[in-house]
């Protein structure tokens, strides 16, 4: 595995673990949520900027990303 790919894998794991702890969720629940709302591609695509931020900011960013995806889904259904 290339260095950058490994860095991204560690970053995704870090984000999952922090999110799990923040929301008292299981790892499986976080993985399902991140997959459902496209968090993994978002984190990967924006790794260069996101990995330089603090964990609290990252958790707020992920929450905002998920909420925006939920709102978009509601608008499509209406």
Short overview:
The chain is mainly alpha-helical and 78 residues long.
| Residue fraction in strands | under 5%
Task: Please compute the radius of gyration using only Cα atoms.
Answer: 13 Å
Give the ordered list of helices and strands. Answer: HHHHH
Kindly report the oligomeric state of this protein.
single chain
If helices are DSSP runs of H or I spanning 4 or more residues, what is the number of helices?
5
- How many structural domains? 1
Helix content: over 70%
How would you describe the shape? globular
User: Runs with pLDDT <50, length 5+?
Assistant: none
End-to-end distance: 44 Å
Describe the model.
It is a single chain. The chain has 78 residues and is an all-alpha fold. The chain has one domain. Helix content is 83%, strand content 0%. The chain contains 5 helices and no strands. α1 (3-23) crosses α2 and α1 (3-23) crosses α5. The longest helix has 23 residues, at 55-77. The protein is globular.
SSE blueprint:
Layout: H1 3-23, H2 27-36, H3 39-45, H4 47-50, H5 55-77
Helix pairs in contact: 1-2, 1-5
Keyword list:
globular; 5 helices; mainly alpha
């Amino acid at each position: 595995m290339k260095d950058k790919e490994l860095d991204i894998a560690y970053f995704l794991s870090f984000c999952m673990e922090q999110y799990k702890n923040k929301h008292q969720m299981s790892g499986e629940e976080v993985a399902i949520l991140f997959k459902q709302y496209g968090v993994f591609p978002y984190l990967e695509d924006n790794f260069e900027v996101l990995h330089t931020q603090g964990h609290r900011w990252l958790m707020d960013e992920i929450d905002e990303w998920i909420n925006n995806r939920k709102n978009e889904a509601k608008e499509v259904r209406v």
